[in-house]
Amino acid sequence: MTIFARPLLVVALVLAGCTSAASVPLDGRAFLSTAVTTSGQPFDLVARTRIRLGFTDGRISASAGCNTMGGSYSVADGQLVVADLSTTEMGCDPDRHAQDEWLAAFLGSRPLLTLDENDLLLASPGASITLLDREVADPDLPLVGPTWTVVSVISGDAVSSVPEHVVATFVFQADGQVGFNTGCNTGGGRYSATAGALRFSELVMTEMSCESPAGEMEAAVLRVLQAETVSYRIEAGSLVLMANGRGLQLSGL
């Protein structure tokens, strides 16, 4: 995969009067790529990857399918200016690693920026990324309806994957009932939801003996179910449940 072609085409875009991050309504928004070009030609990203950019309080987060990058940003003379960009250090296959490096270099090139409602275009000499507001491109799933499957366990700043062959799930119903599988036992109860918070009550479940790794998964699920209050956040097809610094990440897809 070669995506490091030197600039051959200059795309001239002008965004007048933008001299700071505050003057362009990016903050609090996230965008997903819909098209990428290099040297004026369409470019296909690595299969099952997508470029994601998020903007919060003068900070930018970015990913291209493997690592997550972060830094400060501003908009000056119609250009996106990214500074102090750092990245996580997950191991990636060579193609995704190259794609990460390309995105980091692109963001550091002060690309010209055009924002038209939900459409964001970043263009530098020789490359461009077209993006769509994440809430439009990939709307949030409702809490009620999907079978939410645990994909990782969160403990402070550490995130660990679910052991192979262990499946833990939650299903929320419109009448306030919740069903769950801890990865070993099954059960149900009631829940109430307010803005960003859940409370579980009247919980009952089977009492099978659980050995590791299913027992460890059950312990993580019960920490959430038995907490007094659980914060929750849904973004696209992902649900995060947190209580006292520990929690679960689930997928509804």
What does this structure look like?
The structure is a single chain. This protein is mainly beta and 253 residues long. It has helices spanning 94-107, 134-137, 214-225; strands at residues 29-38, 41-42, 52-56, 59-63, 68-76, 79-87, 112-116, 119-124, 127-133, 147-155, 158-161, 169-172, 177-181, 186-194, 197-205, 230-235, 238-243, 246-251. The protein has 2 domains: 21-137, Lipocalin (Beta Barrel), CATH 2.40.128; 147-251, Lipocalin (Beta Barrel). It has 3 helices and 18 strands. The strands form 2 sheets. Strands 1, 2, 3, 4, 5, 6, 7, 8 and 9 form a 9-stranded antiparallel beta sheet that branches. Strands 10-12-13-14-15-16-17-18 form an 8-stranded antiparallel β-barrel. A hairpin with a 4-residue loop joins β12 and β13 (177-181). The longest helix is centred in the middle third of the chain and has 14 residues, at 94-107. The radius of gyration is 21 Å and the shape is elongated. The relative contact order is 0.13.
